[in-house]
Amino acid sequence: MKYLSEYRDRDLVQQYLRQIHVVTTHPWTVMEICGGQTHSLVKNGILEMLPKQITMVHGPGCPVCVTPLGIIDEAIELALRQNVILCSFGDMLRVPGSSKSLLEAKAMGGDVRIVYSPLQAVKLAQDNPDKEVVFFAVGFETTAPANALSVVHAQKMGVSNYSILASHVLVPPAMEAILSDPESKIDAFLAAGHVCTIMGLYEYFPIAEKYRVPIVVTGFEPVDLLQGILMAVTQLERGEAKVENQYARVVQREGNKLAQETIHQVFDVSDRAWRGIGSIPASGYEVNEVYKHYNARTKFQLAMKDVPENSTCISGAIMKGLKKPFQCSNFGTKCKPEHPLGAPMVSSEGACAAYYAYANESNVSLQET
User: Fold this and answer.
1) Over the stretch 153-180, which tens digit does the pLDDT of each residue have?
2) Architecture of domain 65-170+255-299
């Protein structure tokens, strides 16, 4: 327990680890969906504490990582237009587009500003009526309610110079796309607790039943993840495939109804391209017709281009659970956080960034294959 020696739930962690070792009799592959879960697993050395039969693979649950080059290029195009202020959360600024990043666009004179809430961007639009303010709305279902609320708020306040560039992606369709891949060997999922806080559990029941995979909703603390792994492996050993909620202290079965209503008020479900994975049907949100004046794509007549990925980056295979970061020949050499080839190395939730930052601490093997 050397990596968790100061952890407040150390005894409970030890208990779950012992139980996992006792219950595991077959090899199993479990995917944690969320990048926050990945960072916790790697940072705390949990991967090496698990039985050798359990392989943890890292899913596409990093919204920054799956934002396609074409959408980043749209944001950069807007940032370089006159009289446009492009607002974004800070983790998007260094993600490479096809030729440059938002940070480089800012250095070229683009008006790019970091905000901590989409409502800050609405206020910025109020304070700058002679400018068009665009918020780069990236995220999973977790951030969609706040982004939708900013549109509703702007309309109520009569702020017409505000719009959002939506790049929202949805977890359940991505899980189905992964399971439908002939190369996929996923036996169970740890679902993202914060997404389920908004959306609840109902979307996962058909997936568990159709593909015969256990799905356990977990939090992000080591004790959450270990209990979730125990629950998933116990199901696998028993031949079960259910949806279970480890994160019951936060996640309700029905989710947050008010947040869901706000999402559906502003967004329609749409097809969405996922960086490194490709287009997944009905896997995103786009601003609907009622609020089309707040859709940056409509307002600025943007047309997202299909931009090919860097051919040397294996981020798609990593996010589908087919490869680990250390299996990339560029990892830690040509691809580092300060000069990333792909988004998983620069994002605060990216699997490559987690391995780069914490591998030496958690003794994840550099020779892992």
Assistant:
1) 999 999 999 999 999 999 999 999 999 9
2) 3-Layer(aba) Sandwich (3.40)
